[in-house]
Amino acid sequence: MNGICSLGNDVVFDQLVALLNSIDEVLGRQTPVCIYPFDDRTERIAAEIAKRPNVTLYDDRQSIERWDRFMQNAAPERLNKDKFRLYGAHRRFCAFDGPFDRFIYMDADTLAMSPLDHVFQKLDDHDWVVYDFQFKNASKIYNLDSPKLYDIFSQKRIQAEVFCSGFYGAKGGLFNETLREQILNHLKSGDYQYLYRGAGEQPLLNYMVMRSGLSSYNFAKQIPAEQRTGCSATSKHFQENNHILYDKGNRLTYIHYIGVQPSTIQRVCQGENVDFPYRDLFLYYRYLHEPEQRPIFKEPPTSTKTSSPANLGQRLLRKLTSFRR
């Protein structure tokens, strides 16, 4: 069975609802979805998921604890809550144990913009399928200044295979116990020093895929240049038509709200008029099934770079005056 996976907790509630609604709208309401818990703060998302028969909240504690132990052994400092905001991001690895034979993982801060049949089709011939341009900045994956890195991965492989962990297609069961132990042994033997020191689980996942020799496919490198699209909300040139984004006439596969903090999303959904890229598109999907709750802003938004969070009284006032009645 094919399905969509994501990762979340109550901190990213609004993003997760928007993602699920985009899946409803673009992929269809019957699309199976599994959400993996970032941590134990899941009360709100559990209540939301209970309303959606196609969505499940992953609760296999043995699997969750297995990958927690793996992360503890592979990269213990990335579980530091004080240092890494994405300390629980490794729990997306539970998808390798999860309910789907083949799955597409989408971060909570993404929106589906196209049917994903073409991604699943590539999994017929490859183990790993992505569509992003992380290869242009591999320094966020590996320590490129280490000469010994290239004894493990050639420069050609690094330029071809690194990826962003916010969107990928994969197969269930890829990382069995034997392979996990091999990866841990390589890391403990010195490979860990070649990983970029930040960005949560992303460098580790890249390493896992590449060290295991999985067959990878990146649409951004394989399809003709005139057909390629961007995926990041940092790109300002996308055009919207009927709540779908296009890049020079080509429909995006997904949009990733990279760099937009959950706190910014929360403030906007509470009625505070601060800006972020493609905000109206996000709000359309966030309130797709409850449009009467969508905040209405009559003034130009304030830049998040210059604004400061309003106090509670100001936020309540803005919420009361901006929501439809």
How much of the polypeptide forms β-strand, as a percent range? 5-15%
The geometry reads as globular
Supply the number of helical segments: 12
Task: Please give the CATH architecture of the largest domain.
Answer: Alpha-Beta Complex
Largest sheet: 5 strands, mixed
The overall pLDDT average reads: 90
Major sheet strand order: 3-2-1-4-7
Please explain how this structure is put together.
By secondary structure, the protein is α/β, with parallel strands linked by helices. It has 2 domains: 2-225, Spore Coat Polysaccharide Biosynthesis Protein SpsA, Chain A (Alpha-Beta Complex), CATH 3.90.550.10; 260-325, no CATH class. The chain is 33% helix and 14% strand. The chain is built from 12 helices and 12 strands. The chain has helices at residues 13-27, 43-49, 61-74, 117-122, 149-152, 155-161, 177-188, 202-211, 219-222, 262-269, 279-286, 312-322; strands at residues 2-8, 33-37, 55-57, 102-106, 110-112, 128-130, 167-171, 216-218, 239-241, 244-247, 250-251, 254-256. The chain has a 5-stranded mixed sheet, covered by helices on one side. A hairpin with a 2-residue loop joins strand 10 and strand 11 (250-251). The longest helix has 15 residues, at 13-27. The N and C termini lie far apart (42 Å).
Give the helices and strands, then pairings:
Elements: E1 2-8, H1 13-27, E2 33-37, H2 43-49, E3 55-57, H3 61-74, E4 102-106, E5 110-112, H4 117-122, E6 128-130, H5 149-152, H6 155-161, E7 167-171, H7 177-188, H8 202-211, E8 216-218, H9 219-222, E9 239-241, E10 244-247, E11 250-251, E12 254-256, H10 262-269, H11 279-286, H12 312-322
Helix pairs in contact: 1-11
